[in-house]
From TrEMBL:
Entry-linked InterPro entries: CB, DNA_brk_join_enz, Integrase-like_cat_sf, Integrase_catalytic, Integrase_recombinase_N, Tyrosine_recombinase_XerCD
Residue ranges of coiled coil: none
Organism: viral metagenome
Keyword tags: DNA recombination, DNA-binding
CDD domains: DNA_BRE_C
Occurrences of domain Tyr recombinase (ranges): 85-244
Domain Core-binding (CB): 1-69
Record-linked Gene3D superfamilies: 1.10.150.130, Intergrase catalytic core
GO biological process: DNA integration; DNA recombination
Membrane-spanning residues: none
Protein name: Putative site-specific tyrosine recombinase
GO molecular function, one term: DNA binding
Amino acid sequence: MQIKEFLKTIEGLAPNTRSAYEATLWQLHQASKGDEPTPEEIKEFLSRYGTSSIHRHKAAIKNYLEFMGITWPFTRRQFGVSRRRIPRYVNPDLVPSIASAGDEDDYMFVMTLFTLGCRISELMGITREDIREAGVEVTTKGGYYRLKPMARDFASKLRKYAASKDDKPFSGKYSFYYARLKELGKAAGVEKISPHMLRHARAVDLRRKGMSLDLLQQFLGHASITTTAVYLEIEPGELGTELERVEGGENAQPEL
């Protein structure tokens, strides 16, 4: 197995996740008879684990197979593990309509929250100086600073919008944004919606466009790949390896 070569492609992952990937792949390698594991050997290997750990091992192996250009050979119902449901989300195709149901402030609030895939607390903490050409620097719930990439055309639009506002362009309270999003959703024909559902919608959007699970983990800011593994239930098209590829176009972002 080309484990060392694969690990070089995920150096940007959290150290704990990278170590977990490495441990899983070396264990699989030791359990395999040939240079690369067969589907039967992978199935036998995963069958050893229960619900608490199988998603982590599955994520590591699936990302390795993607690196090798091999299609995941199993169905969703295999391994005898109860399926974890994807969190409730809004259809990504409906988000522009929801954002357009109000004024400019509504549009920028909804589209920025969705585009960044961030938490509402992260959005509310953004200052004008945090908005850069490559993306937006947000403060995560753990108190860490992370650059959230976005397409340059939207970043330009956001900078222009923020220039006409106070230091914090999204300075309202959570209760205001929550209630306002409900109103916008209802106007667009979407009855059930919340700020966090837009974060899930963005994850689903990127996964369907082909973002690999490890890069989706980085984009969402998950500490563990196990948290992101719930989106394995989304069947992507042709898998990509960066936001630029999945978003497409000349204005796409550099690698995460």
